[in-house]
Amino acid sequence: MKTHNGTVVIRNGQLIDGNGGPPVPNAIVVAVDGRITWAGPAAAAPPVPPDATVIDAAGGSILPGLVEAHFHPTYFNVAALEDLDIKYPVEYVTLLAAANARLALECGYTSARSGGSLFNIDVWLKQAIENDICSGPRLAASGREICGVGGLMDWNPDFRRIGMDGLVLLINGPTEARAAVRKLVKDGVEWVKTYPTGDAAAPDTNDHHTLCMTFEEMHAVVATAHNHGLKVTGHCRATEGIRNALKAGYDAVEHGTFMDQECLDLLLARNVPCVPALYFEYASIQRGPEFGMSQRVIDGHQETLDGGAESARMILKAGGCLGMGGDYGFAWNPHGDYARELTFFVKYVGFSPLEVLTCATKNGAKLLGRSHEIGTVEPGKLADLLVVPGDPLQDITVLERRHDFIAVVQGGLVRAGTAKNQ
Ligand SMILES: [Zn+2]
What we know:
Blueprint: E1 7-15, E2 24-32, E3 35-41, E4 53-64, E5 66-71, H1 90-106, E6 109-114, H2 121-130, E7 138-140, E8 145-148, E9 168-171, H3 173-187, E10 191-194, H4 215-227, E11 231-236, H5 239-248, E12 253-255, H6 261-269, E13 274-275, H7 279-287, H8 295-317, H9 340-349, H10 353-360, H11 362-368, E14 385-388, E15 407-410, E16 413-416
Parallel strand pairs: 1-4, 5-6, 6-7, 8-9, 10-11, 11-12, 12-13
Antiparallel strand pairs: 1-2, 2-3, 4-14, 14-15, 15-16
Helix pairs in contact: 3-4, 4-5, 5-6, 7-8, 9-10, 10-11
Residues 70, 72, 115-116, 327 line the site of zinc ion.
């Protein structure tokens, strides 16, 4: 991805650097050739060269670019789970994914970690973004997901003679699990996304307390992925599924809904990050009836939301690593609403805005495996920044109002915000 040539100075705002400490009032951030060279109080800042590009934060806040840690670029705001597979041809879904990526960047998300993608689109979307063909967050790609036959993501009836070719690789046993990972190795993914457990969306055969994969299958996935330098994560709601994932050597856990003490101990022992992705559940409860969701499914989402919120509090309190991502891409939880996850964590889960911002920046970078480059505002790192009016530590909802953003900066380049047109 190209970076800015020359010096960029962002001034006249408080700095929230992503490390979780108190904000620095009246700060200045300096970036040279796309990398941060100085960040701190204005009074101690080095002199600004006359040809520098100056961005006025107008008394607002300067923070690291946000990280969407559970991003589905190919989900096109679908109203039914079944539509997620091959409702549209790959050509059209690719265009939709590019539009979603641009939107995420405009929303202040300068990086994202894919949580599963149709076809192999996110791998090539990542490439296109890296090569400046289209704009979007720096991506960690996961391609298609892996699920046991008959599990949550295996909904096409056999008589149609299509598997779930667009969305998931279906497996029976460790041998097929290994074969699926090898396919993904060839596809070029970084993260292997699996389905250890079911979900409230499938109350009849694979609800949120059931499994979709065996421990042996999960272990085969991890051994094969790690051999090829890939990381493994999974949709983990049921307690047994979380435990299996952690014992099998998973590198992250999505949702971590029904944690118990043993799961927490396993999680902390290897400092495995967890992405609760709760706004999807909240939106399902709030807007499910509008979209014909049955009361049974809505009740399941409520149980999931309560369990997920409790587990998130438990992990935070124990000093674990949480990332922020909201499973956006459904009609009731559309792309563009990403920062509502952050608001939800402040208003309903009880995190402080500073804790949420650390999860959404520094921890997100860790999830991407790019802590050395992004996630905090520190000298040496890429100048991926978000400049907003107001103070998200007082009112987290300022991060939801993308049209008011002053600047979304990637590698020192202003990609969006009111400063882009100045
Ligand atoms: Zn997801």
